[in-house]
Amino acid sequence: MSESTPYMAIENVSKIFGSYEALSDVSLDIHAGQVLCLLGDNGAGKSTLIKVLSGFHEPTSGTVKINGKPVQFKSPRDATAAGISTVHQFGGTFPLMSLGRSFFTGVEPTKGWGPFKYFDKKFANKVVVEQMQEMGITRVTDGDRFVGSLSGGERQVSAIARAVYFGAKVLILDEPTAALGVKEAAHVLRIIMQAKHRGIAVVLVTHNVSHALTVGDHFAVLIRGEKADDFAKGQRTREEITDLMAGGEAMAELEAELASLTGSGDSIHD
Ligand SMILES: Nc1ncnc2c1ncn2[C@@H]1O[C@H](COP(=O)(O)OP(=O)(O)OP(=O)(O)O)[C@@H](O)[C@H]1O
Ligand SMILES: [Mg+2]
Predict the structure, then answer these.
(1) Ligand 1 pocket, CB under 6 A
(2) Could you tell me which residue ranges the ABC transporter domain spans (predicted)?
C-alpha cells in the first residue's frame, strides 16, 4: 500500500500501570484514507493504546509521531488540536444534554458580544440535524432532543458526524458496533467507509471479525499488551484472524471442547 509517511505513528510505546505492563513495545502506523482495525481479546490493551493515541494517557516510554515528527500529548486537548477525534468505549456523553449542545461541546457557537454573548442554539441545532440527516439518520429532526433518547447506533453516528464536521484527520472508534443490532451496525460501518473515502484515517477497535473484515485495510492484533501480528487486508484467512483475536488459542479446539461438554449427557442446559 502507501509508502508515504503515515499521518500518525507510535514507536516502541509501553504503558505501565503500577507494576502491570498494559502495553509493551508497540509500534503502529496510521495512514490517511485507511481503516486500521485493532483486534485482541478482553484486556489485551486496545483501549489503553487508544488512550495513548488520544492524549488521555502519556506513554511510559516510546514515541508518538504526527507527520513524522515526535509530539507529546499532555492532554486530550493536545490530541484534538492535532486532528484526533475519539469516540471512547463507554460513551462519555451526557444523556440529559441536548444534541445541539453536545455536538458543540467545547466549541460553542455564540451570538452577541461581551457580556451579551449567548450560545447560538438555533445554529447548533440546525447544524446537528443537517449533519445527522447527511449521514442517513433521518429520524432525528430536532436538535433539542436529549442525547440519551438516541439509539446506540444514532449516538455512534452523531459522534462520527461531529468528528467529520470539525475536520478530524484521525477518527478513533472503540467498539462502535458492540451493542448494536445488525442494521444499525451496518449503518455505522457504512459511515466509517464514508469517513475513510474523505481521507480520514480510521482506527477501529472491534471484537467482531466480520465487521473488521468488511471495512479494514490493515489489521493489528494485541495479545497481553504486545503486538502479536500486523498485516494488510488479504494476508490472513478469516480463521487465522479469529484465532489471533482469541489470544492465539485455536478456536477450533475450543469449539470441540464445548461440543464435547454439551454432547456429554450431563447437559449444562436445563
Ligand atoms: N488506569 C489503569 N490502571 C491500572 N490498570 C489498567 C488501567 N487501564 C487499563 N488497565 C489494565 O490494562 C489491561 C488492558 O486494558 P484495556 O482496557 O486496554 O483492554 P482492552 O483490550 O480494551 O479490553 P476490552 O476488550 O475488554 O475492552 C487490563 O488488564 C486492565 O485492567
Ligand atoms: Mg477496551
Answers:
(1) 17, 20, 22, 40, 42-48, 89
(2) 8-249
In the block, cell 442494521 appears at: 183
C-alpha cell at 94: 451526557
What is the DSSP secondary structure assignment for residue 146, as one 8-state letter?
B
Within 13 Å, how many C-alpha atoms sit on residue 75's CB side? 1
As averages over each run of 10 residues, the pLDDT of the chain (270 residues) reads 82 97 97 96 93 96 97 93 85 77 82 81 93 89 91 86 91 90 89 94 93 95 94 93 78 76 57
Q: How far apart are CA 55 and CA 53, in angstroms?
A: 6
- For residue 113, the CA-to-ligand 2 centroid distance in Å is 43
Taking residue 267's Cβ as centre, other Cβ atoms within 10 Å add up to 9
Euclidean distance between CA atoms 53 and 235, whole angstroms = 26
Ligand 1 pocket test, candidate residues 48, 54, 175, most atoms within 8 A of CB:
48
CA dist., res. 10 & res. 112, Å (int): 43
- Tell me the pTM: 0.87
Q: Tally the C-alpha atoms within 13 A of residue 253's C-alpha that lie toward its C-beta.
A: 5
User: Which of 23, 46, 58, 224 is the pocket-test mutation for ligand 1 (most atoms within 8 Å of CB)?
Assistant: 46
Burial 88-106 (b: 16+ CB within 10 A, else e): bbeeebeeeebbbbbbbee
Compute the distance between CA of residue 37 and CA of residue 235 in angstroms, rounded to an integer.
14
Amino acid found at 184: E
Which domains are assigned to the chain? 8-93+166-262 (3.40.50.300)
